[in-house]
Amino acid sequence: MATTTLLLVDDSDVDRYITQRLLTKAGCDARIVEVENGREALDWLRDNRIPADDGLLILLDLNMPVMGGFEFLLEFAALREQRVDLQPGVVAVLSSSNHPDDLHRSGAFPFVWRHLVKMPTVDALADIVRQARTCTGRAYA
Amino acid sequence: MAFCSHAILRDEIFEVCDSSADARFADNPLVTGAPRVIFYAGAPLATPAGQKVGTLCVIDHRPRKLDDHQRNCLRAIARQVVSLMEFRKAVRERDALAASNRQSAAWIERRKKELARFAYRCSHELRAPAIQLHNLAKLQAEDLTRGRGEDLLANAARLERISAQLLAFIDGIVEVGRAELVGSATQAIDFEQLVREASEQASTLLGNREVALESEVAVTRPVRSEYLRLRQMLAHLVSNGIRYADHERPAPFVRITVRDDGDDAVALTVEDNGLGVAPEDQPYFFDLFRRFHPEVSAGSGVGTTIVRKHAFALGAEVDLASSRAGTRVTVRLPSSPEA
Lengths: 141, 339
What we know:
The complex is a heterodimer of chains A (141) and B (339). Chain A is α/β, with parallel strands linked by helices and 141 residues long. Chain A has helices at residues 13-25, 38-47, 69-82, 100-107, 122-134, 137-140; strands at 4-9, 31-35, 55-60, 90-95, 112-117. Chain A has one domain (4-140): Rossmann fold (3-Layer(aba) Sandwich). Chain A has six helices and five strands. Chain A has a five-stranded parallel beta sheet, sandwiched between helices. Chain B is an alpha+beta fold. Chain B has three domains: 3-66, Beta-Lactamase (2-Layer Sandwich), CATH 3.30.450; 110-179; 186-334, Histidine kinase-like ATPase, C-terminal domain (Heat Shock Protein 90, 2-Layer Sandwich). In chain B, 48% of the residues lie in helices and 19% in strands. Chain B contains seven helices and ten strands. The radius of gyration of chain B is 35 Å and the shape is elongated. Chains A and B meet through helix 1 of A and helix 3 of B.
C-alpha cells in the first residue's frame, strides 16, 4: 500500500515533538522522518529514494542553523530537476515567522504549497497530509 | 612698523606718497632696502561684520599720488577681495554642512536597519517560545485527561526549559535597551581599574570552570572615554571568552591586553583559545540574539550587540579575528591629550 513520507525539518526538538503530537491527532499515518536542518534534509533526500506510489511531504522550518529553509528550497529545487521520484514532493513551510517577506520568498517556489504559521490547527495539518497523499508519482505520470 | 600695520588700523585708504621724505618710514628697512617702498597705498580689507583681516596695497619705487579714480579702483578691488574670501568661506561652510547632513542621514539609515533587524529577531525569538508554551500547555491538559503521567512530566520539563530561555531573552532585550542609556561623563580612563573591575564582573561566571583569566596593561597614552561603557564592553567580551572556552584543550585561557596602538589610539584586546566562531558565522558576530554554540552555553545572545553599541557611542573600532585556535576581539579607542 502506498504511504506518504513526511520529512519534518526543524531545529527545535520541542517544535518537532509538538508537530508529531499534532500529526498523530490529525490521524496522520505517514512515515515521519525528523531532521534538524536543511543540510540534514538534503542528505536524507540524497540517500533515499521515494517509491513510485508514495507521496512526499516536507514540513520545513525557515530559521535554522547550518542550513536554513530558504537555502534548502534553492537546493531542493535543483535536486528535484534530477530526481523523478522527488518531483511529486511538496513542501509546506512551517515557521513561527509571519513576516510578509518570508511568506513572499517561500511562495515563489512552485512546489511550496502552503505557508503555515506555527502551530497550525490539527485540521490544517490533516488537510495538507491528505493532499500530499493524493499527489504521488503515479498520479503525476 | 610696517606700512600695512598702519593701513589696517584705518577705515580709509592709507597713502604715503614719498616714504623717503616721511619721518615715520624714512629709515624703515622696507624703504632703505628691498622691496624699496617709496610709494605706498593700502586699503583695509574689512569683512561685512567689520573685522579687518588684512590690507590690499600697491607700491612703487618712486614717489606717486593716487588720483580719485585710482583711489576708487583700489577700494573696489579691496571690496572684491573681501567678497571672494567671503564666498570661499561660505562654500566651505556649505560643504561641511552637507557632509554632516550626509553623516546624520547615514546614521539614521543605519539605526533604521538596526531597528528593523531588532524587531525581526524579537518577533522570532519571542514568538517561537510563546507558541511552544501555548501548545505544550494544551498538550499537558490532554496528557492529564488521558492519565499519561510520563508525558505530562516530560512536557512540564519542556515548559520549564522554554520559559527559562524566554526569561533570558527578555532580560537580554532589557539589557540592550539599557545599553543605550548607559551614557556617562567622559573621564580619564584608569585601565588597571577597568580591567580589574570587568574581570571581577565576569568571573562570577567562572564558577568551577577551569579557565585562566590573565591580563596585561601597558598603556602610556591618555584616553578620555566613558568608563561605564568600557567596563560593560570588557565584561561582555571576557564573559564570552569564559563561556565558550574549549575544555578539550589543555589550558583554556582568556587574556585581556591593553596597549598603545599606532600613533593615536589604545588597543583593548580580549583573546581566548576557545571554540572560535566559524568563518560563515563571523559576519553575524555582532548581531542580536545570534548564538554560535547553543550546545555549549545558552548565552542571551546580546553581549556582542552591546559591545558594538558601546563602541559606536565611543567612536571606537571593533575588530574580530576568530579561528579554530580561538577568538580575538580588539577595541581600538582613540587617545586624546589629557585635558
